[in-house]
Every structure is written in structure tokens, then in C-alpha cells.
Design a protein that fits this description.
10 helices; Dolichyl-phosphate-mannose-protein mannosyltransferase; 191 residues; membrane; mainly alpha
């Protein structure tokens, strides 16, 4: 019952934040968010025509997903539709974070009081309750999910899954030179 109440409170507060104040720059997309919104609108053309820099390439997945879902469903990629899609994606992401949190709690056998305090620390904060709605075209919330996935796979001793998450989460591996050095180092270690 306590878990249900904690999650219900979080979802009500999070839902309210999605309809609150928006960053007043680039029609609610923000600074970097303008770039990520353009990825969601034009990924297919931009990828082949102009490409993306190494820093941002590994951050594109949420927006690439929105782009292709819109294309498959025939939804127009207007600013308003993209904003709604990002709200939905942030809600889905939050639900995934909650599921991972309770899975980690179960593995570590946290006491109810510990679980409640850690839930509050992780979720009842400015970032979750304000920033996801204020500046929805950001990648930070998805990085938190990758972190929770990393912890979960570590605790479950899923080495391959944890390695994949580490590669997805590592900015440096987006660089071709670093990726080649990494692959060479792995080759040296294995052979």
C-alpha cells in the first residue's frame, strides 16, 4: 500500500508538472532542446545530408525513436505534436525508472523505511518534478534510466547487458578514434 501511495503521489506531481511552466525559448524546446526537436522532425534527411557531431550522436536515440514512430503512424511532426510525444516519452521513462528502482530494492532487500527515503531522494526532486516538463527536449532523464539499468544488470550479474548499457551511456565511445582504440584494446586483451 505504501508503494502504491508513493508511486501515485509521484505520478500526480509529475503529471501536473507537464502542464506547468515551459522554458520560454524556442517555443518550449529550450537551447539544446531546439537541436533535439529538429532531430525528431528531420532525422531521416539530416542524417544522410549533414550528419551529426560525435558529442550528440549518442544522445539521439529518444528523438530518433519519436521521429520513426511519427513516420510509421503518419503523425505530422509539428512542434505541438512533438511536445506531446516528449511528455509521453518522459512518462514512459519515469515508469521504467520506477520499475527498475523497485527491482533494485527487491534485489538488495531494502527495508520499507530505506526504500521510502531512497524513493523520495531519487524521484521527489526538482529534476523529476519540474525540469522534465519545463525543458522536455533534454536527454538527462534518459541518462538516469541508463544508470539504473547499469545498476540493475550489475546486481543481476548480466555482464553482456551491462556492457551494452555502458557503451550506450559512454560519450567517449561515440568518437570513431576512441571506439577503434577500445576495440583494439579488447582484441589485445582477448587474444
Amino acid at each position: 500500500m505504501k508503494k502504491f501511495c508513493m508511486v501515485a503521489l509521484l505520478l500526480v506531481l509529475f503529471g501536473a508538472s507537464l502542464y506547468g511552466e515551459k522554458i520560454p525559448i524556442n517555443d518550449g524546446a529550450g537551447f539544446d532542446g531546439e537541436f533535439y526537436r529538429s532531430v525528431a522532425q528531420n532525422f531521416s534527411a539530416d542524417f544522410w545530408d549533414s550528419g551529426y557531431d560525435a558529442f550528440r550522436i549518442q544522445r539521439l536515440f529518444p528523438f530518433l525513436g519519436v521521429h520513426y514512430v511519427f513516420q510509421i503512424l503518419g503523425v505530422s511532426a509539428t512542434d505541438e505534436n512533438l511536445m506531446s510525444a516528449m511528455f509521453g516519452l518522459h512518462l514512459f521513462n519515469l515508469l521504467l525508472q520506477i520499475a527498475l528502482f523497485f527491482a533494485i530494492s527487491k534485489i538488495l532487500r531494502w527495508q520499507p523505511a530505506t526504500e521510502m527515503v531512497l524513493f523520495a531522494v531519487l524521484f521527489l526532486n526538482f529534476f523529476t518534478l519540474k525540469n522534465c516538463g519545463y525543458e522536455p527536449f533534454q536527454t538527462d532523464a534518459f541518462a538516469i534510466t541508463l544508470s539504473l539499468l547499469g545498476v540493475y544488470f550489475y546486481l543481476k550479474n548480466k555482464v553482456l547487458c551491462n556492457g551494452i548499457v555502458a557503451i550506450l551511456a559512454n560519450d567517449n565511445l561515440a568518437s570513431r578514434d576512441v571506439a577503434n582504440s577500445f576495440a583494439h584494446g579488447i582484441g589485445q586483451a582477448v587474444f
